[in-house]
Design a protein that fits this description.
- 4 copies of one chain form a homotetramer.
- Chain A has 132 residues and is mainly alpha-helical.
- The first copy, chain A, contains 5 helices and 3 strands, in the order H-E-H-H-E-E-H-H.
- In chain A, a hairpin with a 3-residue loop joins strand 2 and strand 3.
- Chains in contact: A-B, C-D.
- At the A-B interface, helix 1, helix 4 and helix 5 of A face helix 1, helix 4 and helix 5 of B.
- Chain B binds a DNA duplex (15 and 15 nucleotides) through helix 1 and helix 3.
DNA sequence: GTGGTCTAGACCACG
DNA sequence: GTGGTCTAGACCACA
C-alpha cells in the first residue's frame, strides 16, 4: 500500500456506507497508535484510488475525523495527525457501548459463528487493549 | 411492559435508525434464548406504542427478523417465534465480526471510555457466552 | 366441485389478493354465460372451503359482485344471479382496456412467453368472443 | 416530454397504484424495443414531476424494473437500460397469462364495451405482435 | 384486530 | 444532481 498506511481495507458492495467504513477503520488504527502525532495521512486522491472510491468520499471521511479532533486539514499540507486531548466519556457512552457490543455478538452468533469463537475474539481484543 | 416482552429499550434521538435498534435488540434476546419456539411477539402496533415509534417501523423490524428466519408473520395471527435451523458461518462472517468489533471498541475509547473499562466489558461478555 | 360451480381456481400464495382473484374469476364465468339468471351461487362457507380461504373473503367477493349488479344477496336465500342491465361503456373504458391489455401482453413476453404464443391466445379469445 | 421518453401516461385517480402503472407502462415500452441498451431513463425526480407523483414512487418503479433485469441503477449515474438475457417461460406463466387475459376481457365487457370491440382490440394487438 | 401496501417528506451517500 | 434510506399516515386484505 502506498504512503505507508497500515492495512486499511473496506468492503465495497457491503450495505455499510463506504465513508463509514473508512472512518471506522482509520479511527481503529489511530486508537491502536499506528500513527504518531505529526504523521501525514495519504492524500485524498491517492487513498481513493487505493480503496476504489470517489475522492469526495475519502475527503468526507477525513472531515469527520477532523471534527473528532484526530486530524488537522489544510489545503496543500494534507491531513496531519494531531495529539488529541483526552475526553471524558459521556454518561451514556458506556451503556451505549455495552448495548452495541451485545448486539454485535448476537449478530455474529446468528450468522453462524460458534459462541466459543466469538468469546475467543472478545478475550483476544481485551488482551490487546490491556497489554499496551 | 405489556405482552411479556423481556426488556427492550431503544434510544430515540440516537442517529442510529430506530428499526435497526429494534432488530438488534430483539435478535440479542432471541439469541439469548429469551423466547421459546411458538411464542408470540407483541403486535406491531402495541410494541410501537411501547417504544414510541411508528408502527411501520416495528413492522419493518419484524420483516427483517422474518427474513433471517426468526419469525413467522401472518395477518391476523401475529408474529410467531420459529425454531431456527443452525447455520454455517459464511467464510466472511468471522472477519466481518472481527473488523466491526475492533471499530466498536475504538469508537468507545475515542469517546472517552477507559481502555480498562472496555476490556472489562469484553471479558465479561466472553464469560457470559461460554458459561452457558 | 360441489354445487355445480364451473371451474373456479385461485392461486393462493400469489401476490394477488384472494378476493380479487375470486371476483375476477366469477365475473369471467358470468360474462361467459356459465350461469343463468336465477341460478344460485354456492354458499359462502362452501366456496370458502373449496378454495381454501376464510369465509369472510368469499363474502367480500360476493358483495363486490352484488355492487356491480351481478348478484342479489339476501340472508337465508343465498347469492342469486340477476339479469344485469346493459351498461354504456364509460368514455375512458376502452382506452383503459387497451392500455392494460398491452401491459399484460408485455408482461407475458417479459416473462418468457414467445410472442407467437401470446398472439395465438389473443386470437383464440377473440374468436370465442365473436362466435357466440 | 423531457429527456426523450416515448409517451408514458398514467391515470392518477385510478385505484390502480401509480407505481404499478409506471412499471407496466415502462415495461411495455421496453418490450416494444423503444429503448436501446445503454439508453438512460429520465432521472426519478424529473419523471416524477412529469407524471405528477412523488419521486419515491418513480424510484420504486425503477427498482422493480432493475429487479427484473431491465435496468442498472447507480447513484449519480442514473438508470441505464440493460441488454436483458432471454428467459424461459416458467410453466405457470402461460396459464397465468391466460387467466388474467380472460378476466381482463370479462371486466371490459362488464364495463359495457361491446364484445366485438374487445375482440377487435385483441386481434389488432395479435397482429402487431406477429408482424415484427 | 392482525400484518401489509402505497405514497409522502426529510434527509443521506456518493459521483 | 444522482439514486437510496428512514419514518410517517392513510388505507387495505384477511382471520
Amino acid at each position: 500500500m502506498t504512503h505507508g498506511v497500515p492495512v486499511l481495507r473496506i468492503d465495497l458492495g457491503s450495505d455499510r456506507p463506504a465513508y463509514e467504513q473508512i472512518v471506522g477503520g482509520l479511527r481503529a488504527l489511530l486508537v491502536a497508535g499506528e500513527f504518531a502525532s505529526g504523521d501525514r495521512l495519504p492524500p485524498v486522491r491517492q487513498l481513493a484510488i487505493d480503496l476504489g472510491v470517489h475522492h469526495n468520499t475519502v475527503a468526507e471521511s477525513y472531515r469527520v475525523l477532523e471534527q473528532e479532533g484526530w486530524l488537522d486539514l489544510s489545503r496543500g499540507r494534507g491531513a496531519i495527525v494531531r495529539r488529541r486531548p483526552e475526553r471524558k466519556a459521556s454518561p451514556a457512552a458506556k451503556q451505549e457501548f455495552s448495548r452495541r457490543l451485545e448486539e454485535l455478538a448476537a449478530k455474529a452468533i446468528a450468522d453462524g459463528l460458534p459462541r466459543a469463537s466469538v468469546a475467543e475474539q472478545l478475550k483476544a481484543l481485551a488482551g490487546r487493549l490491556t497489554e499496551t
